[in-house]
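Quick bug: DeoR/GlpR transcriptional regulator output formatted oddly.
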Amino acid sequence: MLPTERRRKIIKVLEENDFMKLKSLQENLDISMETLRRDVQKLTKEDLITKEYGGIRIKKEQNGESMIEQRLSLNLAKKEEIAKKATNEIKNGDCIFLDSGSTTLQIAKNLTYHENLTIITNSIPVMLQTLNQGHTVISIGGKVRKSEQSITSFDFLFNFDRLNIEKSFICCSGFSLNNGVTDYSLEEVETRRRILQMSKINYLTADSSKLNKTVTIKICDFNELDILICDNELNESDKEKLINEICII
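Here's what came back:
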């Protein structure tokens, strides 16, 4: 296993378990303790994990949200699947909003062969990805969040009232039938709420690992969305319940 792949796996294991003892992690990865210590040192320098007595923990913001760098490789196959479905919903000439998040970044990567798009975004990685694709890219101005590499502002959003946003692709940290769609950051939530009011068609892009997960702040209920784009790992029971609330592709 290549070092980069091994470190991605460490991040994935920590995302799933929060804290791991080095001995348990060594057995999980089936590598030597010396190799593991080198990886831990590298990830600590990159500010992705923190060392604690007897083990390591994934680094998070105070609100509990993991940083976007950590999420880029987590459930990547699911995010790529969602991105392909989302790309099929986007037509040449559309004006779209791409939210900040690792899933919408995968959507951005798939827009190379589209023509004449107007892409509105608060995501710095999405901006960088789409700048050389020949589209018009519009950034929401405001405060930069380092952990999410996003731009948030309540006031600047009102400058976009005259834009005809046809489709918005929104991310979240969790969604459930009982509690709707939720996220960690109030600033991100306010941005999303405003965009939901402005866009004609609202898509929630969320992989199946976020189902039945509820975090700090509510973004919206399902009736404020039009379509859920998810991967194919939703079980039939959950899918049947969700279909009563929202269209799923």
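Actually, after a second look the formatting is fine. The radius of gyration is 19 Å. Closing.
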